[in-house]
Amino acid sequence: MNSKMISLNKCIWLVGLITAVAIVAGAQMDSRATSFMRSMEESMSRMDSDMRSAPMNGNSDHDFVTMMMPHHQGAIDMAKAELLYGKDPVIRRLAEEIIVDQQSEIQVMQLWLTKQTHLSSKVEH
User: Fold this and answer.
1) Does the pLDDT at position 95 exceed 70?
2) Cα 42 to Cα 48, 53, 90, 92, distances in angstroms
3) Average pLDDT for 73-102
């Protein structure tokens, strides 16, 4: 084989290798994006379902709280997806803050519901 043929074979092999690497990288990027979107869709679907099945009693304050808790949990779940897949440090920090804030607000709402239940049981007796 002459040197031009060897160089051509090396060039073809190199182009093939670069193409293969690009295809794998593209598939991984698509896979990450698909995984992120799947996670977001699951979070939103669960949130919608949980909000629809929240125990309502006709008291606006109670009903607001029971619907907001799954709404906040949905925000937490979406923020966790951002932490798994996101790269921007500002948005990742925002996601961390959302998790802390929303968890705190869920705790406040749970405490309020517990107090309301306790007060209702005292009034009934």
Assistant:
1) yes
2) 10, 16, 24, 20
3) 97
